[in-house]
Amino acid sequence: MSHDSIFKDYQLGRHTAANGLRVVLVRQPHLHRGTISAYVGAGSRFERVEDNGLSHFLEHMVFRGTARFPTAFDLNVAVELLGGTLVASTAPDATALSVSLPRESLERGVELVAEVLTRPIFDAIDVERKILVEEIREDLDERGRSIDIDFLSRRRLWPDHPLGRSVTGPIENVMRFGEADLRRCLDERYCARNTVLCVAGSFDVDAIADAVDRAFSPMRRGAISRCEAAPRGPTGPSAAHVDKTGSQTALRLAFRAPGLDDPDLDAAELLLRLLDDGMSTPLHRRVFEDRGLAYDVGADLETYADTGALNVDAVCSHENVVPVAEEVLAILSELRDRGVRQGDLDKAKRRAVWSLERHLDDPEAMNAWYGEQELIARVRPLEEEARLISALGAADVARVAGRIVSKADLHVTTVGALGERQQRALARLAEQGA
Predict the structure, then answer these.
(1) Cα–Cα distances in angstroms (integers) from residue 21 to residues 126, 347, 374, in the given order
(2) What are 349-370's pLDDT values in tens digits?
């Protein structure tokens, strides 16, 4: 069966509004709901040090009411009456706002999303400020040090670069930001050329396009956000530890990896699946099933337009941290040096294609796939992605494994209660590499 026939149950279309807003329309007539998602080029990667955390603050504040719905309560009731719930998140390189609705509510949903993005009234800033401070404190210890392993790892992967900063920013910035800062960020980032609107599900294409044109016409044209390129040279090896009381320690081994624009990304995705994609793959089998070193263990690819990271995470008893790190590095070195069995590679490729097929039943996943790519002007249809993955061979995976699994880009981070001897052992492991 060809990939085109597998992915026949959706139609991809594009529309550009008069103000430059890019609109991606993913029609899935077999569904009964739809999802509206907006992706804005706003996040810590685009911020100066003094503005760090402002994009995240703004993402919170657009939920605080609009001209028609002047309080957070009024806005939430309006969304719920349409059959959905507004959700949003801020990442280093994008802010996303999304709502899933019954198909009969989609046109009114477009109007509401447009109002949230273009006409927030910034009600109750001081109340939201308190909430943001509480959110930041969740990732700080009693001495005010970060215990967020994501931030601690990124800070060393991309030192002295905006990708190494916290998305939430420091408390002192949050306490200083006011309405003028929020409006400046809104004007600079939440503009038509810097935003992608994606609608997926069951809908009339012409009706949705007309609704978008009407609702988003007040959004000013603006400009696409630009950011500092990620550094290319190696930054490792390194090992860092933050003390935190508790019964377990969190461990991360991170390697720099290809970004979304990199031709090696598909091979890196397969490498990840060969490492961690089900309980039979070596990460779970050897760390969890065979040795019982950790209950919580997993790997992921963190990707940005021009760079990325392969992260392997585990949470385990303090005495198991070094054995887990040793086992993970042994698994990675074997994938790099011994290559992969054809049967394992074939299974990984089939599972990768099946994962793409799941988008056909999930309009929110469709929006994430097409909207996030459109934001960086890189769009690869699902069927093309499936063809490229299916064409990869063992040599492609070996090449990307040799590129990623290098001690020059290895950073080991731990948060928990480790003694000096364990910390020295992890430092030696980092120096030795995989």
Answers:
(1) 32, 40, 11
(2) 999 999 999 999 999 999 999 9
Indicate whether 125 pLDDT > 90: yes
Closest residue by Cα to residue 326 from 299, 380, 286: 286
Helix intervals (H) in 17-87: 54-61, 72-82
Taking the C-alpha atoms of residue 146 and residue 332, their distance in angstroms, rounded to an integer, is: 28
For 41-188, where are the E strands, in sequence order? 87-90, 95-102
- 1 pLDDT exceeds 50? no
Distance between CA atoms of residues 245 and 423, nearest Å:
16
- The answer to whether residues 139 and 147 touch, using CB atoms and an 8 Å cutoff, is yes
User: What's the pLDDT at 7?
Assistant: 83
Determine contact, residues 120/66, Cβ cutoff 8 Å: yes
Q: Residue 367's pLDDT is what?
A: 97
- CATH number for the region 10-215 comes to 3.30.830.10
Distance, in Å, from the CA atom of 85 to the CA atom of 167, rounded to the nearest integer, reads 23
In this prediction the pTM is 0.94
Query: What's the first-to-final CA gap in the chain, in angstroms?
Result: 40
| Those residues with Cβ within 8 angstroms of residue 370's Cβ, 6 or more apart along the chain or in another chain | 12, 24, 26, 198, 200, 379
Domain at 238-432: CATH code: 3.30.830.10
Find the mean pLDDT for residues 176-189: 97
Domain ranges of the chain: 10-215, 238-432
Q: What is the pLDDT of residues 223-244, one digit of tens each?
A: 999 999 998 888 889 999 999 9
